[in-house]
C-alpha cells in the first residue's frame, strides 16, 4: 500500500506584506503546487492521496478555487483521495467541501470523530473533520479501533510534543499526545497542522508543501508513505514547492556610500529567484544616504523582493557626540535620557542628527 | 595646541617644503600663486588628515583631492609638528593618498599615539581639541568668504553662531534642522484633517476604504457561501424529488409490467387448460345432494340419548302422599327452659357443695362482760400490783380503765339487762336444741328437716344477739369511764389503790376471777366463744340462702315445663328429660313433613325431563329413518345393515359429488377469467403488451438499482393484491399512481427550477465576487502604511521636541559665554562707541549698548568692520566653548583683510594680534597692508612673518 500524504497547502492564503501582484502570484503557486502533488501521485502510482487539512482557507476561498479543487482531485481518478478538513477549512454547511461536486474518487471526512474507510482488505483508514474553526477536541481521546488489521488515521491536529518546534503563535487545535496513537490501536497517524515537517515513529507531519512565509526550514512537501504488512510506514519526502523563498542577509558594515551597499546586495542576489527577503546588517557611515528605494530596484527580476533596513546601524559615535557642547550633543544626551524603545530611539537619533547634518532623508527603516 | 611647523612632502605644488609658526601670531604673506592656499590646505590636512572609508569618497573629499593632490607623483603627504597644552610634542604624518602610512607620534616618548585621535579612518589632530576635522574647519578656520559674508549680510553673524552652537559649525543650525524636521513632517506625515492630501490622511482614508472593501468582500463572500449552501440544498431537493419521481415511475412501470406478464401468462395457462372452448357445467345444489347433506347434517347434529336416573315422577308422588303433617310444639329445647334447667342444676350443686356446719360454742360465764371489759378489769387489778406505775402503763390502762365503773355495783344488773340475758339464754338454748335436732336429722339424711333447721338457727341467732346486747348494754352503763374522771383521779397512788379495790370487789361480786390472770384467761375464752358463735351463725345463714335459691330455681323450671305440656308432678329432673324427648320427636316429624314442599317441584321437573328424553329418542329415530331413506334415494349402492355404514356410505357419496361439482365450477371460472383477461383481445396482444411494459420498466429502472421500487416510501403504497381473476394487479391505497407520479414530477420540476435559479444567482454572484484575500491584503498594506506614517510622525515629533529642548539648553548656556567674550573687547574694537554686549539665548542674536545714550542696538546694524570683529570674537569664544577644556585651539585665517578698507584691515589685524596672546593665530594673506602691518607690529619671538616665494617656499 503506497500513499501520498500532504497537508496545509492553504489555497487562497493571504500574503499580507506582499504587493497585490506578488500575492496573487504566490496564490497561483499554491495551485501549481497542488498540481505537482497530483502529478506526483500519478507518477508514483499511489493507492490513495491523503490530505491532512487546511487545504484551503474557508474565509477566503473563491469560486474559482473551488472549481480548481474539483478538477485537481478529479484528475487523480481512479486513485482515491481522502480529505480531512482542518481548522482553516473546517467542514460546515457553507464550506466548499460541501459545495463542491467532487468526483467519485474523492471522499471527504465529515464527522468530528474518527470514521473508518477501507483502503484495502485489512487496511482501514480512520478520518475525521474539524467542524468549527476552533475548539475542536482531541480526536484520539477515548477512541479505540474496533477491527483487526492495519489501522491508519488521517486528521488535522496538534501533537503537543511538537508545539515547541513550530512557528510562534501556532494554536493547538485538536491537540493530542503521541502515545495516544498507539493506545488507540492505530499503526500510524497522517496528520496536518504543523507547518514544520516532522517524522515521528507513529505519526507524520508533511509540512506545508509550498512556502507560506519567510524563514521556513526543513524539507517540506509531499510524503510518499509505504505501508508494510506489519503496519510500519516507510516515508520518503518529495519537494513539490513552486515558490522559491529566500532569506538573504548582507553585511554592509563600514560602507561609506550607497553604491557600495548596492553592489553588495546585487552580488548577494545573484542566482536567486522567486521571493527574496533581504536583511541588511552592520554599521554604516553616518553620511551614507540609504533608503529602501535605493535597494528595491535591485530585485526587479524577482517575484517579490522584501528589503529590511531596520537592522542596519548608522555609525554615529553617540558617546562622543553626546559630549559635544553643542545642540547636537545636547540632543543626543536628551534622547538617551528619555529611555525610549531602542528601535524608536534609533529612529529619533538618526532623524535629529540627519536634520542637523542638513539631510532630508529623515525616515529611518 | 600650538602648531610649530608643517612640512608639505608632496602637496599640490609643494614638495618637501616647511613652514614654521610662531607660538603667537604668524602672518604668511605671499602674492597670488605663491601657494598660500596650498599651505593653508596642507596645514589643515596635515593636522586633521582626510577621512578613509569603504566605497566612493564624498564629494567634498573628491574636491579636496582634485585641488591639492600633487600634480605629479603618487605621494601626497604632509607632516605637522605641534605642541599640546599638556606639554607633549606630536608629529603628525599624513599619507593622504594611500591613507595608510598615517601616524601620530609623541616625539618625546617616541610612542605612536594615533589611536588617541583616529577619526574616520585616519589620525585627526583636532580630536585633541575635542573637535573633528569638519568641526575644526568650521570653527578654527576663518576664510575671506566667511568674513565677507558677515560683512555683506548682517544675518550671517547670528547664523554662524547658531550653526556653531548646533553642530560646531559643520552643518545646519538647530533652527534649520527644526525647520527641516517640520518640513518633512508636513510633507511626509501631514495634518490629519479632512481636506489634507498628505500621507497621514491618505493612509487613514486608504485604511477606511480598505476596511470598507474588506467588509464588503467578506459580506459578499459570506453571502456567496450561504447562497452556495442554498444552491446545494436546492440541487439536493431537486435531485431527491427527481429520484423519487423516477423511482415511482419505475416502480409503477415495473408493477404494471409484472401484472401484464402475469395476465398474459395466466391467459396462456387458461387457454392451455381449456383448449376446446368453454367447459360443461354441473349443478352442485340438486335435491338429492341437498337431502343427503341435510340428512348427514341432521345426523351430525343429532342429540345424544337422554338417560334419567333416580325415582320416577310417580314414585315421588307416592312418597309425597306418605309424608306426616307438620307437628306443633317446640322442635328444639327452648332456650328459656334450657337456661332454667341450668340454673336449677347450679343452685342444687351449690347447696350440695356447702361445708358441714361448725361446732356449737360453749359460752363461759362472764357476768355479762365481754372480752374487752374483762381485759379492762384485769388491767385495773394489775395496776395496783406493781409498786410504781409508769406513764406507759397508765396509757395502757387508761383507756381500758374508762370501761370500768368508779363506783362498782356488784350484781347491780338492771331489769332490762336481766330480761335480755334471760331471753338470750332461752333463745340460745332453744335454737341449739332445734339445730342439734336438725343437724342430727340432716346427718341422718332425713328430707324435710330443713324447715326446722331454719327455725332452730333463727332461735340460736336470736339468743346470741340478745346476749351480746345485754353485754354491751352492761358495758355502756359502767361508771367513771370518762377522761375527765380519770384525770380527776389519775396520777394519785391512793386513788389507784382505791380503783383496784373497786375492781376486785366488782369481780368478786360478779363471780368472776379476782386476779388479773384469771380475768385475762376468762376474756380469752369469751373471745373464742364469740368467734365460734359468729361462724355458726354465718353458716346457718348461708345454708338457708342456698336452699331458698334452689327452691326458687326448681319452681321456675317446673313452671316452664308445665307450660310445655309436661306434668309438674314429674318434678324438675324427670320433667325436663321428658321435654327433651318430646322435642326430638317433634323435630323428626317436622323434618319429614318439610320434604313435601320440595317434592312437588321435583315431581314437575322429573316429569319434564322424562318428556324431553322421549322427544330426543323420537328425533334420533327420525334421523336414522331419514338416513336410511336418503341412502336408498341417493343410490349409494348396497345399503349397509348398520347405521354407521349408511352414514359412511353417504359421506363417501357426498365427497365424490362435491369434487365433481368443484371441477366443473373451476373450469367455468377459468373460462370466465380467461374471457376477462383477454377482454376481447387475443393472447398475442396481451403478450405484446407485457413485453412492451417490461421494456419500459427496464428502461425506467436502469441505474436505480435496489431503490427502483420503493413505492411505500412515496406515500402511495402499491399493494399488489390478488384479484378475483387471480392476476396480481397494482393498486394504490392512496389513489391513482399516475396522479402520484404527476405530482412528484411537478415537484421535481419545481425543485429543479429553484435549483437552477439559485445556481444562476450563484454564478452571477461569483462573477462579481470581490477577493476577500486581496481585500485583506489591501487592508494589511493600508495598515502597514498608516503604522509607518504614524511611526514617522511620532519619531519626528519626538525629535523636534528633544531638538528644541537641546537648542534652548545650549543657547542658554552659550549666551553668557559669548556675551563675556564680546564685552571684554567691545569698547576697544568699537573705539569706545559701544560699552556692553548682550547675546539672546533664544536665537543667539547679539545686541550692543551704545556709549552715548545707552541704547541697545542690534549688532547686525553695526558697521562692516565692527561686525567682522564681533564675528571673530564670537568665533573665538565659540571655539573656546567647543574645544576640550584645557586645550586652546589655534586660529587659522585665510585672506580675511582683503575686502576691508585700511582702517578695518588694521583694526582686524590688531584684534588678531591681541588674540594671539591667548592662542596661536596663523594668517595667510596676499594683502600688502597686512604685510606692512606685520612688519610694524611684530616685535618679539611670539610673532613671526613668513613671506612666501614664487615657488611657495618661505623666504
Overview of this structure, please?
In chain A, 26% of the residues lie in helices and 22% in strands. Chain A has 365 residues and is an alpha/beta fold. In chain A, strand 7, helix 4 and strand 8 form a beta-alpha-beta unit. In chain A, helix 1 packs parallel to helix 2 and helix 8 runs antiparallel to helix 9. The longest helix of chain A has 25 residues. The N and C termini of chain A lie far apart (54 Å). The model of chain A has no long low-confidence stretch (mean pLDDT 92). With 955 residues, chain B is α+β, with helices and mostly antiparallel strands. Chain B is 62% helix and 9% strand. In chain B, the strands form five sheets. A six-stranded antiparallel sheet of chain B has the order 2-1-4-5-6-7. In chain B, strands 10-16-17-3-18 form a five-stranded parallel sheet, with helices on both faces. In chain B, strands 13-14-15 form a three-stranded antiparallel sheet. The longest helix of chain B is centred in the first third of the chain and has 75 residues. The two termini of chain B are 26 Å apart. About 7% of the residues of chain B have low confidence.
Amino acid at each position: 500500500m503506497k500513499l501520498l500524504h500532504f497537508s496545509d497547502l492553504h489555497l487562497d492564503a493571504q500574503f499580507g506584506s506582499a504587493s497585490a501582484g506578488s500575492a496573487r502570484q504566490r496564490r497561483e503557486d499554491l495551485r501549481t503546487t497542488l498540481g505537482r502533488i497530483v502529478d506526483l501521485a500519478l507518477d508514483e502510482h499511489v493507492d490513495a492521496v491523503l490530505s491532512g487539512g487546511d487545504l484551503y482557507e474557508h474565509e477566503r476561498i473563491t469560486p474559482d478555487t473551488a472549481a480548481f479543487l474539483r478538477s485537481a482531485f478529479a484528475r487523480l481518478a481512479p486513485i482515491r483521495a481522502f480529505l480531512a478538513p482542518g481548522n482553516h477549512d473546517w467542514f460546515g454547511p457553507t464550506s466548499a467541501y460541501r459545495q463542491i461536486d467532487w468526483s467519485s474518487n474523492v471522499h471527504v471526512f465529515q464527522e468530528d470523530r474518527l470514521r473508518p474507510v477501507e483502503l484495502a482488505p485489512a487496511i482501514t483508514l480512520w478520518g475525521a473533520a474539524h467542524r468549527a474553526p476552533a475548539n475542536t477536541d482531541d480526536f484520539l481521546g477515548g477512541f479505540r479501533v474496533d477491527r483487526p488489521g492495519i489501522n491508519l488515521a488521517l486528521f488535522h491536529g496538534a501533537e503537543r510534543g511538537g508545539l515547541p518546534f513550530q512557528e510562534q503563535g501556532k494554536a493547538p487545535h485538536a491537540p493530542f499526545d503521541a502515545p495516544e496513537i498507539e493506545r488507540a490501536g492505530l499503526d500510524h497517524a497522517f496528520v496536518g497542522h504543523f507547518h514544520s515537517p516532522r517524522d515521528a515513529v507513529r505519526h507524520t507531519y508533511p509540512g506545508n508543501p509550498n512556502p507560506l512565509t519567510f524563514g521556513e526550514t526543513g524539507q517540506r512537501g509531499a510524503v510518499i508513505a509505504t505501508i508494510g504488512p506489519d503496519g510500519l510506514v516507510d516515508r520518503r519526502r518529495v519537494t513539490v514547492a513552486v515558490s522559491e523563498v529566500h532569506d538573504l542577509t548582507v553585511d554592509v558594515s563600514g560602507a561609506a556610500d550607497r553604491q557600495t551597499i548596492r553592489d553588495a546586495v546585487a552580488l548577494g542576489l545573484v542566482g536567486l529567484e522567486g521571493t527574496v527577503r533581504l536583511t541588511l546588517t552592520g554599521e554604516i557611515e553616518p553620511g551614507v544616504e540609504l533608503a529602501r528605494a535605493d535597494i528595491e530596484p535591485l530585485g526587479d527580476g524577482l517575484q517579490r523582493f522584501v528589503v529590511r533596513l531596520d537592522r542596519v546601524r548608522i555609525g554615529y559615535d553617540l558617546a562622543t557626540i553626546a559630549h559635544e557642547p553643542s545642540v547636537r550633543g545636547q540632543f543626543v544626551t536628551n534622547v538617551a535620557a528619555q529611555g525610549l524603545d531602542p528601535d524608536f530611539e534609533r529612529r529619533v537619533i538618526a532623524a535629529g542628527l540627519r536634520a542637523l547634518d542638513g539631510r532630508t532623508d529623515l525616515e529611518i527603516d | 595646541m600650538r602648531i610649530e611647523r608643517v612640512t608639505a612632502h608632496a602637496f599640490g605644488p609643494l614638495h618637501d617644503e616647511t613652514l614654521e609658526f610662531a607660538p603667537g601670531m604668524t602672518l604668511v604673506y605671499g602674492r597670488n600663486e605663491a601657494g598660500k592656499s596650498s599651505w593653508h590646505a596642507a596645514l589643515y590636512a596635515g593636522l586633521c588628515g582626510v577621512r578613509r572609508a569603504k566605497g566612493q569618497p564624498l564629494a567634498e573629499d573628491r574636491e579636496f583631492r582634485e585641488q591639492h593632490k600633487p600634480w605629479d607623483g603618487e605621494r601626497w603627504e604632509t607632516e605637522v609638528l605641534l605642541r599640546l597644552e599638556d606639554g607633549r610634542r606630536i608629529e603628525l604624518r599624513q599619507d593622504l593618498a594611500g591613507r595608510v602610512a598615517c601616524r601620530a607620534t609623541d616625539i618625546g616618548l617616541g610612542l605612536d599615539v594615533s589611536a588617541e585621535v583616529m577619526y574616520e579612518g585616519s589620525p585627526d589632530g583636532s580630536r585633541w581639541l575635542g573637535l573633528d576635522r569638519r568641526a575644526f574647519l568650521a570653527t578654527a578656520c576663518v576664510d575671506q568668504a566667511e568674513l565677507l559674508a558677515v560683512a555683506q549680510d548682517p544675518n550671517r553673524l547670528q547664523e554662524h553662531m547658531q550653526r556653531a552652537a548646533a553642530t560646531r559649525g559643520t552643518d545646519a543650525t538647530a533652527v534649520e534642522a527644526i525647520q527641516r524636521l517640520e518640513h518633512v513632517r508636513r510633507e511626509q506625515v501631514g495634518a490629519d484633517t479632512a481636506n489634507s492630501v498628505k500621507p497621514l490622511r491618505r493612509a487613514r482614508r486608504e485604511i477606511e476604504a480598505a476596511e470598507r472593501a474588506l467588509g464588503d468582500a467578506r459580506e459578499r463572500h459570506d453571502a456567496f457561501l450561504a447562497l452556495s449552501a442554498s444552491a446545494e440544498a436546492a440541487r439536493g431537493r431537486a435531485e431527491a424529488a427527481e429520484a423519487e419521481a423516477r423511482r415511482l415511475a419505475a416502480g409503477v412501470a415495473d408493477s404494471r409490467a409484472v401484472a401484464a406478464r402475469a395476465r398474459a401468462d395466466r391467459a396462456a395457462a387458461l387457454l392451455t387448460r381449456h383448449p376446446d372452448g368453454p367447459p360443461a357445467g354441473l349443478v352442485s345444489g340438486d335435491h338429492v345432494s341437498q337431502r343427503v347433506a341435510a340428512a348427514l347434517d341432521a345426523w351430525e347434529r343429532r342429540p345424544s340419548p337422554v338417560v334419567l336416573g333416580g325415582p320416577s315422577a310417580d314414585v315421588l308422588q307416592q312418597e309425597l302422599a306418605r309424608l306426616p303433617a307438620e307437628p306443633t310444639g317446640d322442635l328444639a329445647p327452648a332456650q328459656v327452659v334450657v337456661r332454667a334447667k341450668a340454673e336449677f342444676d347450679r343452685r342444687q350443686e351449690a347447696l350440695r357443695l356447702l361445708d358441714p356446719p361448725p361446732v356449737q360454742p360453749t359460752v363461759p360465764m362472764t357476768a355479762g362482760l365481754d372480752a374487752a371489759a374483762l381485759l379492762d378489769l384485769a388491767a385495773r387489778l394489775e395496776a395496783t400490783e406493781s409498786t410504781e406505775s409508769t406513764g406507759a402503763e397508765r396509757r395502757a390502762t387508761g383507756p381500758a380503765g374508762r370501761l370500768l365503773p368508779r363506783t362498782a355495783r356488784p350484781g347491780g344488773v338492771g331489769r332490762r339487762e336481766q330480761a335480755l340475758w334471760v331471753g338470750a339464754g332461752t333463745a340460745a338454748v332453744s335454737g341449739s336444741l332445734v339445730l342439734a335436732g336438725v343437724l342430727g336429722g340432716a346427718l341422718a339424711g332425713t328430707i324435710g328437716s330443713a324447715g326446722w333447721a331454719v327455725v332452730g338457727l333463727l332461735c340460736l341467732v336470736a339468743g346470741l344477739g340478745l346476749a351480746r346486747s345485754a353485754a354491751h348494754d352492761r358495758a355502756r352503763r359502767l361508771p367513771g369511764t370518762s377522761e375527765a374522771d380519770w384525770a380527776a383521779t389519775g396520777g394519785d397512788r391512793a386513788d389507784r389503790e382505791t380503783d383496784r379495790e373497786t375492781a376486785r370487789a366488782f369481780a368478786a361480786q360478779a363471780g368472776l376471777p379476782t386476779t388479773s390472770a384469771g380475768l385475762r384467761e376468762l376474756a380469752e375464752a369469751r373471745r373464742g366463744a364469740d368467734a365460734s358463735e359468729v361462724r355458726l351463725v354465718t353458716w346457718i345463714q348461708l345454708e338457708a340462702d342456698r336452699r331458698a335459691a334452689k327452691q326458687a330455681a326448681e319452681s321456675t323450671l317446673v313452671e316452664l315445663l308445665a307450660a310445655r305440656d309436661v306434668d309438674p308432678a314429674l318434678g324438675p329432673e324427670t320433667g325436663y328429660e321428658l321435654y327433651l324427648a318430646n322435642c326430638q320427636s317433634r323435630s323428626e316429624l317436622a323434618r319429614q313433613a318439610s320434604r313435601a314442599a320440595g317434592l312437588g317441584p321435583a315431581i314437575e321437573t322429573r316429569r319434564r325431563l322424562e318428556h324431553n328424553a322421549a322427544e330426543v329418542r323420537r328425533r334420533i329415530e327420525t334421523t336414522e329413518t331419514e338416513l336410511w331413506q336418503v341412502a336408498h334415494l341417493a343410490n349409494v349402492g348396497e345399503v349397509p345393515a348398520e347405521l354407521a355404514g349408511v352414514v359412511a356410505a353417504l359421506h363417501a357419496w357426498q365427497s365424490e359429488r362435491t369434487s365433481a361439482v368443484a371441477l366443473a365450477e373451476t373450469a367455468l371460472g377459468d373460462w370466465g377469467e380467461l374471457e376477462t383477461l383477454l377482454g376481447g383481445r387475443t393472447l398475442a396482444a396481451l403478450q405484446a403488451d407485457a413485453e412492451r411494459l417490461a421494456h419500459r420498466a427496464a428502461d425506467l429502472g436502469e441505474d436505480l438499482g435496489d431503490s427502483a421500487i420503493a413505492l411505500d416510501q412515496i406515500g402511495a403504497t402499491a399493494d399488489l393484491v390478488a384479484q378475483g381473476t387471480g392476476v396480481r394487479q397494482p393498486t394504490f391505497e392512496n389513489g391513482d399512481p399516475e396522479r402520484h407520479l404527476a405530482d412528484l414530477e411537478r415537484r421535481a420540476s419545481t425543485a429543479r427550477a429553484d435549483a437552477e435559479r439559485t445556481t444562476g444567482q450563484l454564478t452571477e454572484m461569483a462573477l462579481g465576487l470581490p477577493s476577500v484575500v486581496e481585500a485583506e491584503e489591501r487592508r494589511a498594506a493600508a495598515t502597514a502604511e498608516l503604522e509607518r506614517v504614524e511611526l514617522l510622525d511620532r519619531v519626528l515629533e519626538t525629535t523636534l521636541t528633544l531638538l528644541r529642548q537641546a537648542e534652548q539648553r545650549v543657547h542658554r548656556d552659550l549666551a553668557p559665554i559669548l556675551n563675556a567674550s564680546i564685552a571684554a573687547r567691545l569698547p576697544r574694537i568699537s573705539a569706545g562707541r559701544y560699552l556692553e554686549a548682550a547675546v539672546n539665548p533664544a536665537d543667539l542674536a547679539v545686541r550692543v549698548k551704545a556709549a552715548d545714550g545707552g541704547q541697545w542696538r542690534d549688532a547686525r546694524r553695526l558697521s562692516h568692520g565692527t561686525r567682522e570683529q564681533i564675528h571673530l570674537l564670537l568665533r573665538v569664544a565659540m571655539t573656546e566653548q567647543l574645544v576640550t577644556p584645557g586645550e586652546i585651539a589655534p586660529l587659522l585665517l585665510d585672506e580675511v583683510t582683503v575686502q576691508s578698507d585700511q582702517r578695518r584691515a588694521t583694526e582686524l589685524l590688531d584684534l588678531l594680534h591681541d588674540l594671539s596672546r591667548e592662542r596661536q593665530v596663523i594668517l595667510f594673506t596676499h594683502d600688502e597692508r597686512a604685510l606692512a602691518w606685520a612688519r610694524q607690529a611684530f616685535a618679539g619671538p611670539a610673532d613671526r612673518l613668513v613671506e612666501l616665494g614664487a615657488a611657495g617656499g618661505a623666504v
